[in-house]
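Can anyone check this?
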Amino acid sequence: MKLRTALAISALLSAMIALPAMAAPDVYVVNFRNDGEPASKMLDDALSAAIKIAGVEAEEVIVDTTTAAKWERSAHDAFNRNLVPVFNRWVGLPGFAAIVDADTKAVIGCVTPRIAPTEMARALRQMAQTAQGQAVMTRASTSSATECPADYNTPLVE
């Protein structure tokens, strides 16, 4: 019996080692949404397509304030990824997504449903390249497309 258990554990460990490691994201795409906001639904569809088109290592983190339970889940998801400052900055303001450098946790830019999924994908690709430390050529005429909204919440001062 001990031999079988040892063999089973050995086989399990070998299988786990052989599994390919999941690539760490270059960027987090923090989607601020609420079911009552029409822009949220438009962004959900466009963002999903844009992430696929961009072909970058991106992890979507959804901050949903539709219900208290979704709000709490969102807070936990932000905490688990060390994105609490980003969460606190815009929680409650739906209809856009903040693109965050996965290593430094700095906000690189934002996208809204006002731009087409292909333009959003181009912006995501450029922001991911910025997170990787690559130089990126941008057109000045499109810079407003990735500007973030003003802070929605003010930090508590002690």
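Reply from J.R.: I decoded it. The domain at 27-146 is CATH 3.40.30 (Glutaredoxin).
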